[in-house]
Amino acid sequence: MIPSMKKNLLLFSMALFFLDMAYAQQSAIPDLKKGFAVKEICKMQWDTPQGLRYKKVAGVNLGVTSFEVLDKNRVAFLSDASNEIIIAEKSNNKTLSRFTVADVPRDFAYDKGNFYVLFENTVVVYNENGTNLKTIPYPNSFVGVERITRHNNSTYLLLPSGNSLEIESASGKSVSKSYKGWITSSGIFVSGKLNGANSYMVQVSSTNGKSHEKVFTSPLKTAGVYVVGSNQNRVVLDVQTYISESPIQVERHLVTIALNSLGLGDIISDIKVPDCYYVLSNKDLVLADDGAVLNMITAPQNVFLFSLTETEAQKSQNYPSSILSLKYHFNDHILQVNEQK
Questions:
Q1: Is-contact 51 95, C-beta < 8 A?
Q2: What Cα–Cα distance (Å) separates residue 139 from each residue in 71, 167, 195, 233?
Q3: Cβ neighbours of residue 29 under 8 Å, at least 6 residues apart?
Q4: CA-to-CA distance for 70 and 74, rounded, in angstroms?
Q5: pLDDT category, 340, cuts 50, 70, 90?
Q6: What are phi and psi of 326, to 5 degrees?
Q7: Contact present, 225 and 194 (Cβ < 8 Å)
Q8: What is the pLDDT of residue 62?
């Protein structure tokens, strides 16, 4: 009789434990105020005269490492497979022009008709005709830099540490000035870091020294928090959470957070990014000037560019099912060293 009672108490305690866990996980899911309307705005093919090159080398699959929207009609892709910038028309998915850049480009930024292309230890500036205008060096002590941006006529490296390094001032002089957080198009510096298993902290800072921070929770264990951008009323993040830690599997969520003069508000919208990575890309999410988030997805057949616009939750529209059903990661299809010809 006694062992039976102990067994029942143990089962009851376990049931309470799992109920508490479920409640805690559910309470970590924010009451979202908005949704996203997802719309395809461009589609480019691989390995066609009008398309983009795909290349397998030992250890990595190359194709498009970054993109920039030039205006309402044109988009540019940076290819690390062909070492080119390809300018395409969004409405008909056709290439308008292309020009060669130096080998192994990492990222680029477009500003006032010029392309600022990031390489190891240098940034090379090209005009739209492909003419090399100038080179901006940066210290070789900064290794592994994969992102670049422009703000207010200055050039910044977005460092793996989550900080920014100004390497060219608005007057065109070479400088080396560090800032906490990644600078965004609004001039605000944003940083994110893990804050426990199921939470992360976001900090926003202005050039006048004012800063605000806030902790947010996630329903799954947080693997990483990365800045996409910010404008006057939103901070946009790429929040990655673990599905499994052994083997490691993560999912990415595009999260927007309210921002005002008093600081950070609540999470406004959250959408899962499709798990499809045909090639390695350094920049596949961009916050556009009109507030839409642009997402480049590299699939085996095409490179897609989607626009995600905040809308009322009941009017939200997800990615196409054909994209959501794709489960592809280049790590599962890389060429081994002994296979390379």
A1: yes
A2: 33, 9, 31, 35
A3: 219
A4: 5
A5: low
A6: -75, 130
A7: yes
A8: 95
Q: What three-state secondary structure class fits 329?
A: strand
User: Greatest CA separation found in the chain?
Assistant: 88
Mean pLDDT lowest among 7-16, 234-243, 260-269, 272-281: 7-16
Here the tokens at position 314 are 């009941």
Buried b (16+ CB within 10 A) or exposed e, 285-319: bbbeeeebbbbbbbbeebbbbbbbbbeeeeebeeb
Chain-centroid distance of CA 239 in Å reads 9
pLDDT digits (tens, 9 = 90+) for 299-317: 999 999 999 999 999 999 9
In this prediction, residues 226-242 reach a mean pLDDT of 97
* Length reported for the chain: 341
Q: Which of 217, 201, 265 is nearest to 28 (CA)?
A: 217
- Place 331 in a pLDDT band, splitting at 50, 70 and 90: confident
Residue type (1 letter), 144: G
Domains of the chain, CATH where assigned: 34-339 (2.120.10.30)
Q: What percent of the chain has pLDDT over 90?
A: 80
* Residue 260, SS3 per DSSP: strand
What is the number of alpha carbons within 13 Å of residue 17 lying toward its C-beta? 6
Residue 175 identity? V
- pLDDT reading at 8 higher than 80: no
SS3 332: helix
Contacts of 297 (CB under 8 A, 6+ apart): 274, 276, 284, 303, 304, 305, 306, 323
Rounded to 5 degrees, what are φ and ψ at 143? -105, 155
Measured distance CA(137)–CA(120) in Å, rounded: 9
Query: How many other β-carbons are positioned within 10 Å of the β-carbon of residue 43?
Result: 17
